Amino acid sequence: TRHSSSPASRGEMSAASSSMRRAVARGLRLSARGGATSCSRPEMLVTRGLSASFSSSAGARSASSPGLFEFRVCSVKPGAMDAYLAACASHAGTRARLEPGFLGAFRTSVGGDVNEITRVIAHADYDARDAAIAAMRADPAWTAFCDSTDPLIAHETSEMFLPATKCLEAVAGDSPSDADAEARWRDFFCSKSEKQKTNPGVFELRAYQLELGYNPIPKLMEHMSKGLPSKLKSDTEKNGLLIGMFYSDVGRLNRFIEVWRYDSAKNHIAAREAARGAIEWRECVGHIAPMVQMFDTK
Questions:
Q1: Does residue 6 form part of some domain?
Q2: Which residue numbers delimit the NIPSNAP domain (predicted)?
């Protein structure tokens, strides 16, 4: 939900109290305006990466919490994208200072609204999100950023996701961080090899909308954890890299998303074609398909 530009609501709508939030099933519809800094500069197949900003640690999550991942989608007015991106770049330091959980921003190139920017932000929990929002609202530099970008934005949405840890565990390598959604993301974007790449690559966001009920998401993750290793193994040329998997907590429920990285659109096609020969993956798709109401990729 877009916030008004009054001082009381600058940068975010007022955060609901913890008790109210829990009473409405944590129905938050808050959004903070974006900035960009560079740890790497991913470009995109569907979403051209604008930037990524990272703190040196994985955040202040408790040992028992896998963390929360906010996907904010901002629709920029036609003709205003260059001005909006320039404002984001000029306030990159402000975002890095106020929102260390900011994981990256991507501009859609094909498969969706080409004036759309998707930001991914990690939070320890909902209270930590509230605290970050409060800090933004009180910061003069953030207020200045909102003043400059408010007229450029048509609308924004915000949805919260939990990491699909079971799926990541099934394909984790030797590093324990491979099964930790936030650490996996940071390890990739801040790796020495990634920062040295002259080609930032393209990224794909795959989204499954499942049928209603308590069981579809657990069933999907169970099937994914069995079939996903064969899909990755089939990609012998390592054309695709799995960045993350998540399922919705607030927003469109029973929604499951994957984020992949490729060197090019050609590599994306090659990875998909290779997966069609993976028997366990084909069986996985056969089990999942009856539960899926809609599937899209961008």
A1: no
A2: 69-164, 204-291
Written as six digits, the tokens of 200 are 């930032």
Say what angle helices 140-149 and 81-90 make with each other, to 10 degrees: 170
- As a whole number of angstroms, the distance between CA 235 and CA 241 comes to 10
> What gap in Å lies between CA 198 and CA 196, rounded to an integer?
6
Contact 137, 11 (CB under 8 A): yes
How far CA 68 is from CA of 140, 156, 161, 162, in Å, comes to 27, 19, 6, 5
CA–CA gap between residue 36 and residue 44 (Å, rounded): 16
Per the structure, the count of domains in the chain is 2
Report the distance separating Cα 115 and Cα 151, nearest Å: 15
Mark the ranges of the chain whose per-residue pLDDT is less than 50.
Answer: 1-60, 62-63
Residue 192's SS3 state is helix
* R_g of the chain computed on alpha carbons: 19
Q: Report the DSSP beta bridge partners of residue 150.
A: none
Write out pLDDT tens, residues 257-291: 999 999 999 999 999 999 999 999 999 999 999 99
Q: Are 164 and 245 in contact (CB under 8 A)?
A: yes
Alpha-carbon span 227 to 280, nearest angstrom: 5
Report the C-alpha gap between 78 and 152 in whole angstroms.
9
Report the CATH number that the domain containing residue 142 is assigned in CATH: 3.30.70.100
Domain match, 189 and 140 both: no
Query: Per DSSP, what are the bridge partners of residue 245?
Result: 258
Q: Are residues 66 and 150 in the same domain?
A: yes
pTM score = 0.79
